[in-house]
Structure to design on (427 residues):
C-alpha cells in the first residue's frame, strides 16, 4: 500500500467516523439538558412526590420550560422539597401553582406549572407556594373503598336507629 | 523433610498466582513505557497513520455489516415484544438506546479484538520471533517507540470511530426493518428516538466506553505480542490469549463503566 493511498483511506475513515457521530448527535439524540447558564432555580414543597425523579421535565401548557434538579426531604416540615431549574426566557407570576402530573396512564411523572394572576414574578431562589401532590394509586383506591363503606354503612338498619 | 514437602506444595499452589502477578506487573510497566515513548512516536504521525489504516480502516467492513445485522435483529425481536403491549412505536427507542449505550461499544470492541487485536499480537510476536525487534535495538531504534506505541495509538484512535459506525449502521438497520418492512410510521420512529436519547447521557457515555475498550484491547494486544515466547507455538498461543483476555476484560470493564454511568440517576 502506497503512503498516499493510506492517507486517503485513513482520511476517509476519519470522515466516516465523524459522520457516524454526527448522525448519532443530530438524528438520534437531542440535548435535553438545558445549559446551566440560562436557567434560574425555584423550589416547591410537596406533601408527596410519588415517582417524580431528578431530571423530570417541568411543563407549562405542555411546553417543557425546565427540569427538576433536586429532590430532598425537608427535615423540619417532613415534606419533599423539589428544586426546579426554569428556562430564564420564561417568567411566572408569584402565585403560580405546581402540581405533579403523569403523562399517560403509565408514563413518566412531571411537574405542571399553572400560571397565576399576580403581577410580580417568581424571583430566582423563590418558592412556589401553591402545590398539589402526586396522585398515589393506593391512596386513591383506599379513599374510594372507605367512601364506599361509609355509604353502605348509612343504609344499614342500625344506622337508621340512631 | 516433611516440612520441605509442605513448602513445595505451597510453592506449587502459589506459582500460577505469582506468575500472573509478575505478568500483570510487567504489563503495567510496559504501559508506562508506551506512554513515555508516545510523544516521540506521535510526532511521526505517519507511523500511527499506517496502524489506523491497518486496525481501523480494514475493520470498517466487518463492523458495518455486523452493525447492520445486529440492528435488524434487534428491530425484529423488539417488535415481537413491543407489539404485545401496543407500543410498537417505541421500537426506535429500544433499538437506539441498546445500540448506543451497550451493543455499539461492546460488540464493536469484541469484533475489533478478534479482527485487529489478534493481527497486532501476531505481527509483534512474529517480529520478536524473527528477532526484528532485537535488530532494531542493535541499531539504537527503540522498538517500543517505533513499533509498539504506533500500534497502540492506532487501536485507541480507531475504536471510538468504529463503535460510532457500528451504532449508526445498527440504527439504520433498525430503521430498515421497523419502517420499511414492518410499516411503522417513520416520523414517530425518529421523533420518539430523538426525544428519549440524550446526547450527553447516552451517546457520549457510549463513546467514553469505547475509548476505554480501545485502550484495554490495544494494550492487551501489543503486550501479548511483546511478551510472546519467540516460537511458532508461542505466537499462536499469544494470539488466542489476546482474543480471550480482551473479550473478558471488555465485558468486565463494561459492567464497571455501566455501573458508574447509568445508575443512581
Amino acid at each position: 500500500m502506497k503512503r498516499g493511498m493510506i492517507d486517503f483511506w485513513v482520511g476517509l475513515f476519519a470522515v466516516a467516523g465523524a459522520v457516524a457521530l454526527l448522525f448519532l448527535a443530530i438524528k438520534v439524540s437531542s440535548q435535553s439538558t438545558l445549559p446551566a447558564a440560562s436557567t434560574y432555580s425555584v423550589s416547591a414543597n410537596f406533601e408527596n412526590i410519588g415517582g417524580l425523579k431528578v431530571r423530570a421535565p417541568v411543563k407549562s401548557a405542555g411546553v417543557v420550560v425546565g427540569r427538576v434538579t433536586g429532590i430532598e426531604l425537608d427535615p423540619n416540615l417532613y415534606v419533599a422539597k423539589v428544586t426546579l431549574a426554569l428556562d430564564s426566557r420564561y417568567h411566572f407570576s408569584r402565585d403560580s401553582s405546581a402540581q405533579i402530573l403523569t403523562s399517560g396512564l403509565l408514563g413518566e411523572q412531571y411537574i405542571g406549572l399553572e400560571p397565576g394572576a399576580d403581577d410580580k414574578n417568581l424571583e430566582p431562589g423563590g418558592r412556589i407556594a401553591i402545590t398539589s401532590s402526586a396522585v398515589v394509586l393506593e391512596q386513591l383506591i383506599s379513599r374510594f373503598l372507605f367512601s364506599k363503606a361509609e355509604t353502605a354503612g348509612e343504609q344499614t338498619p342500625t344506622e337508621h336507629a340512631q | 523433610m516433611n516440612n520441605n514437602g509442605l513448602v513445595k506444595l505451597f510453592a506449587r499452589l502459589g506459582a500460577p498466582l505469582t506468575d500472573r502477578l509478575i505478568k500483570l506487573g510487567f504489563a503495567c510497566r510496559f504501559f508506562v513505557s508506551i506512554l513515555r515513548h508516545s510523544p516521540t512516536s506521535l510526532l511521526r504521525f505517519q507511523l500511527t497513520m499506517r496502524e489506523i489504516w491497518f486496525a481501523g480502516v480494514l475493520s470498517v467492513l466487518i463492523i458495518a455489516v455486523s452493525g447492520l445485522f445486529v440492528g435488524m435483529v434487534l428491530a425484529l425481536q423488539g417488535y415481537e415484544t413491543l407489539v404485545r403491549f401496543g407500543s410498537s412505536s417505541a421500537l426506535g427507542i429500544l433499538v437506539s438506546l441498546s445500540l448506543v449505550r451497550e451493543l455499539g461499544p461492546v460488540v464493536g470492541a469484541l469484533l475489533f479484538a478478534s479482527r485487529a487485536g489478534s493481527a497486532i499480537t501476531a505481527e509483534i510476536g512474529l517480529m520478536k520471533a524473527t528477532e526484528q525487534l532485537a535488530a532494531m535495538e542493535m541499531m539504537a531504534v527503540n522498538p517500543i517507540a517505533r513499533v509498539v506505541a504506533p500500534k497502540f495509538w492506532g487501536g485507541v484512535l480507531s475504536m471510538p470511530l468504529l463503535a460510532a459506525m457500528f451504532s449508526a449502521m445498527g440504527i439504520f438497520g433498525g430503521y430498515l426493518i421497523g419502517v420499511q418492512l414492518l410499516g411503522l410510521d417513520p416520523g414517530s420512529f425518529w421523533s420518539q428516538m430523538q426525544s428519549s436519547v440524550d446526547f450527553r447521557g447516552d451517546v457520549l457515555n457510549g463513546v467514553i466506553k469505547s475509548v476505554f475498550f480501545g485502550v484495554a484491547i490495544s494494550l492487551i494486544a501489543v503486550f501479548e505480542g511483546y511478551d510472546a515466547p519467540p516460537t511458532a507455538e508461542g505466537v499462536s498461543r499469544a494470539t488466542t490469549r489476546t482474543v480471550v483476555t480482551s473479550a473478558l476484560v471488555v465485558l468486565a470493564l463494561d459492567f464497571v463503566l455501566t455501573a458508574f454511568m447509568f445508575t443512581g440517576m
About this structure: The first helix of chain A runs from residue 3 to 28.
